[in-house]
Design goal:
single chain, about 475 residues, Aspartate Aminotransferase, domain 1, Aspartate Aminotransferase, domain 2, seven-stranded mixed beta sheet, five-stranded mixed beta sheet, 20 helices, cytoplasm, EC 2.9.1.1
């Protein structure tokens, strides 16, 4: 160990090594950056040697070994932390994998806005300062029927702003059966506390009646809030109070009726036999004063929180200081604008151009055709075999949890690895492939794979096949 410690080359010698000089040129980084990699590498080598955790072949040139370690560190740095993956899980709105994919039109609009200056806060015709709130408001009004709308950075922010802006220091009535917790330990009760609104729980977990709401209303009540329980279902001996009763009750007492819809469907998936998710426009048509929902769930757009409803309430929220704190940037607005335009064109346009809606209603015959095309190409993958299997996909993102979409995919067998080893190797590819297990085998669900994904999947398997052939 001491012998190897004495052989550690000084920093300046490593700096002059041709491979290290090439790293500077290849990555376009400064000498200082490369030097930091060298020092970090040498510190790690010393620590490994002192802990007897490093074994070096006697025939190995120590300088070459150190240079190789520095080079590997530079290549790790070159890779982005946020990277593309192939989602072969069948979960359409996979929160861990970024939820909704954007449409081609939305991506192009983001690129155009990001590459150039834009009228983000400028009225071109008047030559005056404008407001970013106006960029998508008319589109939201068009597709939801709302009087006005406001966009913030996610739906949790939308809930918080609504409660803080309209019910601070006042009481908000919520059914106990709707005090949900969603991903990341976001609880309605906790966000209520943070907003300085007082939560008034009514009813029980499984049953809430109209008289529960009526008896809870007093002079301190600011709002009746209904939370759509999109990520779970209470079944059996249950009862809840519909907006048909709550809206007139709120109007009678001059308080706000607010629904947090969460997923935010703009089309009726029930017409395709999928779930019973409330449609935003229908909720507003039935008299809800305000609704809020996500941009990157059933809407199929970027992460955003949308608040829509009565103009006087929206105008009040726009003037709140938090509206600036929670506002979205130009790229989010560009993606959202393009996504909303697809809905404004009609349901057919949304189902055709928005990946989320397209994948949800994707026909099994189309999925089978994609599999057959893939299997024809995959015949040359000598170390793999595939078996077509039927299964069920999920929508994900806390949306319609009971809905199972009929799907097809392939189980994958590798002759040189166990299923667990294969699953790990797939995640380590240059474009990671994320599948799931079905009957203890790796399974690729083709519902969430586009033609481009399938091409990439084949190329990644080919890369792995070639590596395994020489092992």
């Amino acid at each position: 160990m001491k012998e190897w410690l004495r052989q550690i080359p000084p920093v300046h010698e490593i700096q002059r090594h041709p491979q290290i000089l090439n790293v500077e040129e290849e990555l376009g980084v400064s000498r200082e950056k490369v030097t930091s990699w060298i020092k970090e590498t040498l510190d790690q080598i010393r620590a490994d040697l002192l802990r007897n955790q490093l074994t070096i072949d006697r025939a190995t040139d120590f300088m070459d070994y150190v240079v190789q370690r520095v080079y590997e560190k530079s290549q790790d740095w070159k890779q982005y932390s946020l990277t593309e993956v192939i989602n072969a899980t069948g979960t359409i709105l996979h929160t861990n994998l970024g939820r909704a994919r954007l449409s081609d039109e939305a991506i192009q609009h983001v690129v155009e806005v990001a590459q150039n200056y834009s009228n983000l806060e400028y009225k071109i015709l008047e030559g005056k300062r404008g407001s970013r709130h106006n960029i998508v408001e008319e589109l939201i009004k068009e597709v939801t029927g709302a009087e006005a709308a406001l966009v913030v950075n996610n739906n949790a922010s939308a809930v918080y702003l609504t409660l803080r802006g309209l019910a601070k220091g006042k009481e908000v009535i919520v059914s106990r059966g709707e005090l949900v917790e969603i991903g990341g330990s976001f609880r309605v009760s906790s966000i209520m506390e943070e907003s300085d609104a007082t939560l008034v729980e009514v009813g029980t977990t499984n049953k809430t009646h109209d008289y529960d709401y009526k008896s809870a209303i007093n002079e301190d009540t600011a709002m009746i809030m209904k939370v759509h329980t999109s990520n779970f279902k209470v079944v059996g001996f249950t009862e809840s109070v519909d907006k048909d009763i709550l809206v007139p009750l709120a109007n009678k007492h001059n308080i706000t009726y607010y629904e947090d819809l969460g997923s935010g469907a703009l089309i009726d998936y029930g017409e395709s036999g999928i779930g019973d998710e409330p449609v935003v426009k229908e909720v507003l048509d039935k008299g809800a004063h305000l609704v809020s929902f996500s941009g990157d769930k059933l809407l199929g757009g970027p992460q955003a929180g949308i608040i829509a409803g009565k103009k006087h309430l929206i105008d009040h929220l726009k003037k709140h200081q938090l509206a600036r704190v929670l506002r979205v940037d130009k790229m989010t607005l560009a993606a959202l604008e393009s996504t909303l335009k697809a809905y404004a064109k009609g349901t057919k346009s949304a189902l055709h151009s928005i990946p989320t809606t397209r994948d949800i209603v994707k026909n099994v015959s189309e999925i089978k055709a994609q599999i057959m095309s893939f299997l024809e190409r995959a015949e040359g993958l000598s170390l793999f075999s595939f078996q077509v299997q039927s299964s069920f996909s999920t929508i994900g993102g806390g949306t319609m949890p009971n809905e199972q979409l009929e799907t097809y995919g392939v189980t994958v067998n590798c002759y040189k690895m166990t299923p667990s080893q294969l699953e790990r190797q797939l995640r380590k590819l240059s474009t990671p492939v994320i599948g799931r297990f079905l009957n203890d085998q790796v399974f690729f669900d083709f519902r969430t794979l586009t033609p481009r994904d399938i091409d990439c999947l084949y190329n990644q398997l080919l890369e792995l096949n070639q590596k395994l052939e020489v092992m």
